[in-house]
Amino acid sequence: MEIKELYALMERFEKSGLSELVFKKDGEEVALKKVVSAPQAPLTMPVAYAAHETRAPIVEPHVKQASDTEVIRSPLVGTFYRAAAPDAPPFVEKGEMVQKGKPLCILEAMKLMNEFQAEFDLEIVAILAENGKMVEFGAPLFEVRRV
Amino acid sequence: MIQSLLIANRGEIAVRIIRTCREMGIRTVVAYSQADRDSLPVRLADDHVCVGPAPARDSYLNVRNLVTAGVLSGCDALHPGVGFLAENASFARDVREAGLIFVGPDPEVIELLGDKIRAKRSAQELGIPVIPGSAGSVSDADEALSAAAEIGYPMIVKAAAGGGGKGMRIVRSGNELADVLAIASHEAEKAFSDGTVYLERYLENPRHVEIQIVADRSGNVVHLGERDCTVQQNHQKLVEESPSPAVSAALRERMGSDAVRLLGGMGYTGAGTVEFLVKDGEHFFMEVNARVQVEHPVSEMVTGVDIIRQQMLAASDESLEIRQQDVRLGAYAVECRINARSAGRVTQFMSPGGFGVRMDTFLYLGYQVPPWYDHLVAKLIVTGRTRPEGLRRMERALSELVIEGIATNIESQKKIVSHPVFRKGEYGTGFLGEILKEGGL
User: Fold this and answer.
1) Residue B215 — φ and ψ, nearest 5°?
2) Reported ipTM
3) What is the distance between the terminal CA atoms of chain B, rounded to a whole angstrom?
């Protein structure tokens, strides 16, 4: 399957009401699954933005190689921080096993610190965003493997 | 002067803003949704930031992501474009609080103009003619009858909380007033949980004529003549021209000075439009659009003034480049809006050219028109020394325009522009409905 076809499939799947999809063709198999979870409550949220509640990070299958890893993407535009404070140790390091609910990073938007947590037990395969830099909506933050 | 601008919009208007900024040496950053990744503004801007998924409510209306994108990408100003958040006072306030310049009037001014009753009252206080109507709401038939004596028939009953035609009823004589009032009030009650209604004179088949204003902070308020936007379908403008065939020099003078007085009086800055209804040589204030408008190129082509440039100057607290006495009216310009009737990939695209032809579009060969947003895909504008010359040129330009792969309204625009009633210039807002009845659009 071409990457383009896979993207098209993912896009249609995203818009569909389905929560799971297994697609088999020419001996290849693609399984897509939506992460159904309540939006994570941000630390603080001004009333004016209630309509744009911080969404849970977006988790997508990693498409570069047909591997078992997934990519966690930014649900907002903000500054990516790997630690709670400039002198604090990073929340996670490459290769680390992280339990569900543990913080992964902070995304700062409009002076609000939004902490994002692991939604499942995982292993950090790679850290894809740079500390202190802007990430746009959908920017890859972590490549992870479910454990 | 503004150094770096976040454009919180998409499509043709984003391209339009980028072009002027490039000429002014201003860096542009375009905010885009995931559906617009391959769009022309993203290609043309100096930088781009994805602010959300395809649905506008999560991207182009996502205040937090837009403001954060502006701040983090090093911009000192934000241009809202048209539609989306362009007339949202609280957005303008958030932009300002984040330390960015909002390219538009102050939030307080947007707020005042957004309240149609307050705006109408402001106009009235300045002696600007408004559509005659009851001073406030009418509660019973007796009150309505005495108000009607002053307003005159036909009248329209409108819901105070209204919109979308609900609770709106036309009354042609005193005999039917009591019944119509009861029906309208009942309808308003059901639609808005508020049965309050008021009365206004009903202008049958009026012209829709608007005055383009540019203003700076030092109080220089200039009008760039009028645009006639009478050719509409379901309140959507399709063809806009200047000068209006229904406006005399004396009427233009009155409307222009009324518009300048109204916006000047409230400290308006940037580009704005004062909309009037014109009937039998009289003008009536309708409302103000507190932003640049889709059809602004018509006035640009008539006057030679780059309106986006004046907007950027005014937002930078600099002076406009023109004064009223420098404005040259007299040339003719007309715009046809090219709307998509389906989404899809553009498989053929040929843009018209030649003398006096301007094409503002974000289409290109191979572009995938997304199904998520406004259907406007191109604006074709031509100039001429006279209306007949301009309209012949528009026919010629429309015949050169080729867009394939998506359905468009090009054929229908050709029919409007060549229609004898349109050519004659004597028609009202009901014109398009009449041609539609003839069939063929």
Assistant:
1) -145, 145
2) 0.78
3) 48
Q: Look at residue A36 in the predicted model and tell me its pLDDT.
A: 46
Question: Which of A1-5, B213-217, B218-222 is least confident?
Answer: A1-5
Token pair 């038939």 is found at: B141
In A, what residues contact B, Cβ < 8 A? Answer: 48-49, 51-52, 76-79, 109-110, 134, 136-139
**Number of domains making up chain A:** 2
What is the span of the domain harbouring residue A108?
41-146
Neighbour count for residue B227 (Cβ, 10 Å):
27
Instruction: Tell me the mean pLDDT in the region B383-388.
Output: 97
What lies within 8 Å, CB to CB, of B349 at 6+ separation is: B363, B364, B365, B367, B402, B403, B404
CA distance A12 to chain B (A): 12
Q: Are residues A28 and A51 in the same domain?
A: no
Q: B293, B270 in Cβ contact below 8 A?
A: no
What residue ranges in A16-111 does DSSP mark as E strands?
Answer: 20-25, 28-33, 58-61, 69-73, 78-81, 97-98, 103-109
The domains found in chain B, sorted by start residue, are 4-103 (3.40.50.20), 141-201 (3.30.1490.20), 207-438 (3.30.470.20)
Q: Which of A34-38, B13-17, B54-58, B190-194 has the lowest mean pLDDT?
A: A34-38
Q: Do A77 and B90 make contact, defined as CB atoms within 8 angstroms?
A: no
Residue with more model confidence, B164 or B139: B139
**Residue A13 burial by CB count (10 A; 0-12/13-18/19+): exposed, middle or buried?**
middle
Query: Touching check for B418 and chain A: CB below 8 Å?
Result: no
pLDDT for position A37? 41
% of chain B exceeding 70 in pLDDT: 98
Residue A30: per-residue pLDDT: 77
The CATH number assigned to the domain holding A47 equals 2.40.50.100
| Among B10, B27, B252, B291, the one annotated catalytic | B291
pLDDT score of A64: 56
Residue B142 burial (CB count, 10 A): 10
> Is B358 one of the catalytic residues?
no
Closest CB to B50: pick one of A52, A110, A137: A137
Buried b (16+ CB within 10 A) or exposed e, B390-401: bbebbeebbeeb
Give the lowest-confidence range in A44-53, B71-80, B226-235, B294-303. A44-53
Beta B27-33 vs B4-7: how paired, if at all? parallel
Looking at the structure, tell me whether residues A86 and A118 fall in a common domain: yes
Separation of alpha carbons B12 and B300, rounded Å: 16
Interval B226-264: pLDDT, tens: 999 999 887 789 999 999 999 999 999 999 999 999 999
DSSP secondary structure letters along A1-20: --HHHHHHHHHHHHHSS-SE
The shortest C-alpha distance from B34 to chain A (Å) reads 8
Q: Are B198 and B148 in contact (CB under 8 A)?
A: no
User: pTM here?
Assistant: 0.83
